[in-house]
Task: inverse folding
């Protein structure tokens, strides 16, 4: 990515297209997946859908987890034949690449059935995520954003599940993580694109939501 792009108040059009592709695919499958479908079936269908919609592939593997599979959401997770139950949670993490080389990154959690604790966990991550988006401001450090997350998480009784102890990372046109993670130790002032992805749960299941935020010098934009 051109270094000057990170100084702009508006996100690059290519980034917006890539992220809208990621959101479209993640939300399509969060809506359409049916009990009985396996992680592997949904994973393969997502990758096909990315191509159908004009993407060239994915920059890191698509992650799909159902039931206990929602306890991990990491690129090394291999989709299994584990099916979605009729009372169950599932996570879908999509990373498309567009024709012009831009990267998107979006996670959505789906729920099937009427399990009250599962719904409460999903509601909690949605509230936390919305609060993080609302608190984003120009000149903010990654560690400060993480502190907002920890404060919001405390009253829920849930725990953070990310194995690297973060809630997101920087993102550029053809690279990621260059400016590090959104964690307690990264004092980097956030500029350009950052994927924010709180991932929380308990010993039975996890819930996660992810979107990309653009940090300009005087304006912050949630790409939607």
Result:
């Amino acid at each position: 990515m051109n270094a000057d792009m990170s100084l702009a108040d508006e996100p690059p059009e290519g980034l917006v297209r890539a992220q809208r592709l990621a959101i479209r695919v993640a939300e399509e499958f969060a809506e359409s997946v049916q009990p009985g479908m396996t992680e592997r079936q949904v994973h393969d269908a997502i990758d096909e859908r990315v191509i159908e919609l004009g993407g060239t592939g994915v920059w890191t593997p698509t992650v799909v987890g159902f039931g206990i599979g929602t306890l991990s959401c990491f690129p090394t997770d291999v989709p299994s034949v584990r099916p979605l139950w009729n009372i169950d949670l599932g996570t879908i993490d999509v990373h498309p690449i567009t024709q012009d080389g831009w990267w998107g990154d979006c996670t959505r959690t789906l729920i099937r059935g009427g399990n009250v604790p599962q719904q409460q966990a999903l509601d909690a991550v949605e509230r936390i995520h919305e609060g993080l988006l609302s608190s984003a401001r120009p000149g903010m450090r990654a560690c400060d954003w993480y502190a907002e997350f920890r404060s919001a998480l405390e009253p829920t009784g849930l725990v953070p599940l990310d194995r690297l102890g973060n809630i997101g990372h920087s993102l550029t046109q053809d690279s990621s993580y260059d400016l590090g993670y959104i964690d307690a130790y990264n004092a980097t002032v956030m500029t350009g694109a950052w994927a924010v992805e709180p991932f929380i749960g308990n010993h039975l299941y996890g819930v996660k939501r992810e979107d990309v935020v653009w940090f300009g010098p005087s304006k912050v934009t949630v790409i939607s």
Q: What stands out?
A: The mean pLDDT is 96. The longest helix spans residues 13-32. The radius of gyration is 17 Å. Residues 3 and 133 are 24 Å apart (CA to CA).
